[in-house]
Structures are given as structure tokens and as C-alpha cells.
């Protein structure tokens, strides 16, 4: 049994593809916009799901965060700076993180005041209809195996200490370069970021040992 990858079933677009999709989307091409955002939907959802953690996951829907982030992204396409093939995902994650922080703040306020409505969607139904991303078609058997492993992996990543968790998220889920990983986790050097990343993956391999043992048979 091979170990499914962290990445989505379709790889991130190249920088050239991203440039073209963003250019067309900025010109009002809804097909390009849909393709651009759909490519990142699942990875972005998983990143938000992991950062929510088990305590908030039952209270805040990760797909609400992603949908709201997409609505904001549609309005702010001019803000994207394309420097590498992970630029769009990095930018979307920043937008989604703002949405996540707002949702967590609202949850805290609702908990203090005893309000039980935990909805995170502050956008209008018209805004939401502008883009409704859909999952890519995948053969059922492959999708089941992939989703089973990724659900377990995401849970294991969420349980990591913060520094290691962020190193894995930034390197594997974002496809970030080591300079980006080191900067974002506050590591003094690339080597320090790599050590945090490898320690995190050692723990993940222990947690998910049956998958890796089967893969090596």
C-alpha cells in the first residue's frame, strides 16, 4: 500500500498557470475565477480545519471560513502578488486566517454572552452564489483511500506542538519554500526550520505507523 500524499489530487498550478488564471479572473472571466479557486478549495479547508483544533472544530465550520474567504478574495484579486507557484494559496490562507480569527472572536463573545448562534457567515446569499466551489471528480475507491488517510493525517498534524504543526502546514500543505517556512515560524535559520519540520514528521510517522509500515512492504 502506498502512502497517499499530503497534496490534493490535482497539483498546484505552475506560476505561469497562476499568472494566466489571475489575469483572466481580474478581467472578469468567471470560468478562470472558478478554476483558480477550485484548485485550492480542499487544501485551504484542511489548513483551516487543522488550525481550528478539536475544541473549535465542532463549533465553527471550516467550509464556512473557506467560503467567506473566497467571497473576500473575489473582491481583492488585485492584492495577489505572484512570486512562486504557492503564492495564491499563501494569499488565500492569509485571507482565510483573518476570517478564522473573526469567527473565533465571535465565538468567544457569544460564549461570554450566552448566545448560541455560532454561524460564521456574514456575507449575503448573493455574494455566496457568486462562487460555489465543487470537489474534483475522483474514482470512489481512490477517493475513499485518500480521504481516510488525509483525515487521519490532518488529525495528527493538528495534535502536533504549534511550531512543528506550522512547519508541516507551511512546507507540505502550502508547498512553501524553506525561506518562507523559516520566516513564518520565526526560526533563526532554514536549518532550524528543517529540524522542526523533521521532528514533526518523526512524530507523525509514529502516529500513523501502520500506513508507513504497509508502504514499505
| Mean pLDDT over the full residue set | 79
Low-confidence runs (pLDDT<50, min 5 residues)?
115-136
Strand pairing plus helix content: what structural class?
mainly alpha
Q: Give the helix proportion (percent range).
A: 55-70%
Mind summarizing the main beta sheet?
A: none
What is the radius of gyration computed over CA atoms, rounded to a whole number of angstroms?
Answer: 18 Å
In total, the number of strands is 0
Shape: globular
Number of helical segments with 4 or more residues: 10
Distance between the amino and carboxyl termini: 8 Å
Strand content: under 5%
Kindly report the oligomeric state of this protein: single chain
User: How many domains, in number, for the residues?
Assistant: 2
Q: SSE string, helix = H, strand = E?
A: HHHHHHHHHH
Topology overview:
Elements: H1 15-26, H2 30-57, H3 62-75, H4 87-113, H5 125-129, H6 140-158, H7 162-173, H8 178-185, H9 190-207, H10 209-216
Amino acid at each position: 500500500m502506498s502512502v497517499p500524499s499530503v497534496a490534493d489530487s490535482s497539483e498546484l498550478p505552475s506560476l505561469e498557470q497562476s499568472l494566466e488564471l489571475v489575469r483572466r479572473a481580474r478581467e472578469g472571466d468567471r470560468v478562470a475565477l472558478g478554476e483558480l479557486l477550485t484548485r485550492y478549495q480542499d487544501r485551504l479547508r484542511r489548513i483551516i480545519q487543522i488550525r481550528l483544533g478539536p475544541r473549535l472544530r465542532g463549533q465553527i465550520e471550516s467550509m464556512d471560513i473557506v467560503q467567506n474567504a473566497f467571497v473576500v478574495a473575489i473582491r481583492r484579486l488585485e492584492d495577489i502578488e505572484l512570486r512562486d507557484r504557492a503564492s495564491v494559496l499563501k494569499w488565500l490562507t492569509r485571507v482565510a486566517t483573518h476570517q478564522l480569527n473573526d469567527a473565533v472572536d465571535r465565538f468567544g463573545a457569544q460564549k461570554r454572552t450566552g448566545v448560541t448562534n455560532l454561524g460564521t457567515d456574514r456575507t449575503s446569499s448573493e455574494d455566496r452564489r457568486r462562487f460555489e466551489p465543487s470537489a474534483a471528480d475522483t474514482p470512489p475507491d481512490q477517493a475513499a483511500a485518500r480521504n481516510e488517510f488525509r483525515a487521519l493525517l490532518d488529525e495528527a498534524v493538528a495534535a502536533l506542538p504549534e511550531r512543528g504543526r506550522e512547519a508541516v502546514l507551511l512546507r507540505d500543505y502550502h508547498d512553501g519554500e524553506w525561506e518562507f517556512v523559516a520566516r513564518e515560524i520565526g526560526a533563526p535559520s532554514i536549518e532550524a526550520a528543517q529540524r522542526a519540520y523533521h521532528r514533526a514528521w518523526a512524530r507523525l510517522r509514529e502516529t500513523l505507523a501502520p500506513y508507513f509500515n504497509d508502504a514499505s512492504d
